[in-house]
Amino acid sequence: MFKNYGISLVPVSLKELKDIKHNNREYIISISSTISKYGNFLRARKSFLDRMVLAKKFCLYDISSFAIADISAKGFRNNSYHYFQLPVEVKEVVKLIALSIYEDRRTKLTWPGGVRSKLPADAGSKM
Fold it and tell me: Which of 16, 36, 80, 97 has its CA 20 to 30 A from that of 26?
C-alpha cells in the first residue's frame, strides 16, 4: 500500500539501524501486535530509539495494541512520534503516515528565514 504513495519500506533489525549513518531524518514504522514484539520494541526504545526520536533524527510511527509510549509528550511537540492504537484500518494508517512524511519533507525544504533585502540598482550611483 505504501508503494501507491511512492514510499518503499525496508525491514531492518535494531543492530542494522544502529550501524546506518543517519545524515537525513529517518522514518521508522513499528508494529507491536504481540507481547514479545512489544518487549523487543521496549528494549529498542531503551537502548537507542528514544534518544534518536528526541534528537529529531528519527520520526517514529508506533502502531500498537499496548499503551502509548512515555516519550509521546516531547515527541508530539517536535512531530517525531506518532501513535496508532490497534485495531486500525490499514488504508487509513498508510494514508496518514504518507501525508505526515510528505508534510515533514516539505517543511524541511522551506527556508526558515525571510527574503534578503536588496538595494535599488541606482542607489550606488548617486553617492
Answer: 36
Cα separation values, 55 from 64, 102, 105, 113, Å: 23, 20, 17, 22
pLDDT along the chain (127 residues), means of 10: 90 86 86 90 87 87 85 68 88 93 76 65 59
Question: Which 8-state DSSP code applies to residue 81?
Answer: E
Q: Look at residues 91, 93, 42, 99 and name the one whose alpha carbon lies nearest to residue 71.
A: 42
User: Which residue bears the cell 521496549?
Assistant: 42
Report the Cα 9 to chain-centroid distance in Å.
Answer: 14
For 10, the grid coordinates are 525496508
Q: Output Rg (C-alpha) for the chain, integer angstroms.
A: 20
